[in-house]
Amino acid sequence: MSPVRRLMVMIRIPCIGAVLCATAILIAQDPQPVFMDDDRIAVRGHDVVAFFSASAAVAGRREFQVEHGGAVYRFASADNRDRFVADPGRYLPQYGGFCAVGVAYGGRYPVDIATWRIIDGRLYLNKNAEVRRIFDQDTATLVRKADERWPQVAAAR
């Protein structure tokens, strides 16, 4: 992928009535790493808005997907997709969707979606149920450590 392509995020804006469809191009300053599969699908294909609105891990659908920060995010509905497009920072998982405890200790690890948790309006994911229990036992300390270490962890390519 070209460097220019990595800096660009294409978001399709849906047609409404006779209004023409448009494509908005957003330039990312310094793309953060995102936990995604080989097809660039983030959050294991789950709808990040649904974690907040439905308090559940809901599978997204291909017809309601957008690209953001080099990753593809899928949504259960057009409404959820549009809410994400309007304010992606509100819904994106912390630490690029990598394991929060792993980041607190300086690493990037894959996650199990069943470990999701929203704290103070932020979405956190962890590697597995055991790691989630560790996260739950000392959330404030681990979040503080992960917030401090994320810039270094993100920069390590």
Can you tell me about this structure?
The relative contact order is 0.14. The protein is built from seven helices and six strands; from the N terminus they run αββαββαααββαα. By secondary structure, the chain is an alpha+beta fold. It has a two-stranded antiparallel ribbon with strand order 1-2.
Mean pLDDT: 85
Number of contiguous helices: 7
Helix content: 25-40%
Structural class: alpha+beta
Low-confidence stretches: 1-29
The sequence of SSEs as H and E is: HEEHEEHHHEEHH
Oligomer: single chain
How would you sum up the global shape?
globular
The largest sheet, given as strand count, sense and whether it forms a barrel, is: 2 strands, antiparallel
The overall strand count is 6
CA(first)-CA(last) distance: 16 Å
Percentage of residues in DSSP E strands: 15-25%
The largest sheet has its strands arranged as: 1-2
Radius of gyration in whole Å, from Cα? 16 Å
Describe the structure concisely.
This protein is α+β, with helices and mostly antiparallel strands and 157 residues long.
